[in-house]
């Protein structure tokens, strides 16, 4: 990845509160309208509802109290931006998430999306130039995966540097602490056209690799062509494409012939996928019979590996966001207060969203020294 270059930009905030930011700030704290009204003096439920809908101006004193209640700088509420409906993209989730948990997660994703757009005003990263592949009766998700490997110049065999490969193609990969077991990942496009693949940081690496590959299929073959016909199965197509992307059939079919339980750990380590994924792929490619696959799944369960598998899969950490904040903190010489002012967030949020900030290390060190004076 090329080194980031930077240019300075003067920011001008409009003097009109963005009602979208009111909703975003509240949801990112997991608060309801009723809770905010209870926290802010002289604020009525009916008025606050109209403020969030953009039907009523927000008095300065009220705005200051809302900002204090939600622990956001006042400047956050003046930021421009359109809240892209996240429902128009694709979640990987096993069952429906509770509405409150979903709202909190979506708000945090949206905050990061806005912050990255803001930061990219002054830092350049590799330009996103991924081709679009429309799935048809004659061009399947498997074909998409084959073409993507060709475009990304991935050599035969397992993908050793998955995240670095996507970052070089201008895709930001972001590990987020979701605290929701039912959330695996999602792809969002920022207002300025930057794709971000969000991945639940609490998952094992083999699942992260599959999720990233799954989202890559969405990015290349589904998002550019939305809305899709109602008879399409985008999740099934993304699973099919991810399987081919990580384990190309022409390269692994023979290896999977007559698969034995003792081989699962070796295959997991080599291909960088879960043992369950190896079994799925072996059955899908007719390398083992459905009955044999069922027996191997039973053996996985018997050994307590259906929920948590043994073995470790290596996966590099995302680097683009780290390089972006390094450019601000080191190359451009921004102070922490200046960065917080640009982004319109508080110190705690900055350290949560950008964990490798050198300012975070300095603040932690300072607090340890103050707590343990010599």
Please name the defining characteristics of this protein:
single chain, 374 residues, mainly alpha, 434 Repressor (Amino-terminal Domain), 4 domains, four-stranded mixed β-sheet, 17 helices, 6% strand, elongated, disordered N terminus, disordered C terminus
Q: What structural category characterises the helix and strand content?
A: mainly alpha
* Binned strand content: 5-15%
The main β sheet shows up as:
4 strands, mixed
Total of domains: 4
What is the CA-CA span between the terminal residues?
Answer: 44 Å
Average pLDDT, rounded to a whole number, is: 88
User: What is the approximate shape?
Assistant: elongated
Helix tally? Answer: 17
Unreliably modeled segments:
1-14, 363-374
Overall radius of gyration: 23 Å
Percent helix among the residues? 40-55%
Q: State the strand order across the main sheet.
A: 1-3-4-2
Describe this structure in words.
The protein has a four-stranded mixed sheet. It has 17 helices and four strands. It has 374 residues and is mainly alpha-helical. Helix 8 crosses helix 9. The chain has four domains: 83 residues, lambda repressor-like DNA-binding domains (434 Repressor (Amino-terminal Domain), Orthogonal Bundle), CATH 1.10.260.40; 161 residues, no CATH class; 64 residues, no CATH class; 48 residues, no CATH class. The longest helix has 21 residues. The N terminus and C terminus are likely disordered.
